[in-house]
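Assess this one:

_____
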Amino acid sequence: MSTNNSADPKRPNKVHRYKPLPEGTTDDPTPDYMNLLGMMFSMCGLMMKLKWCAWAAVYCAFISFANSRASEDSKQMLSSFMLSISAVVMSYLQNPQPMTPPW
């Protein structure tokens, strides 16, 4: 088996060394948006007694928690979880029938 070095597809002038970004420059707004969206869904679930809004709030709270950094404030995450779970509990306490699809 012979190797053919002339057919090597690598171009040495196009190779660049990886340099990681400095710490703190990546600012992902996803957790903040999901937290805000979750609180809006929670309020809609509580005020309008919409079960699907309450479940969407729980989903948004989980996404916000999963995408957050360890250095962020955990009090806001905890309040978002508690608000969304209370929306689910209150909507099922007021109407214990299973959720009907919104469509």
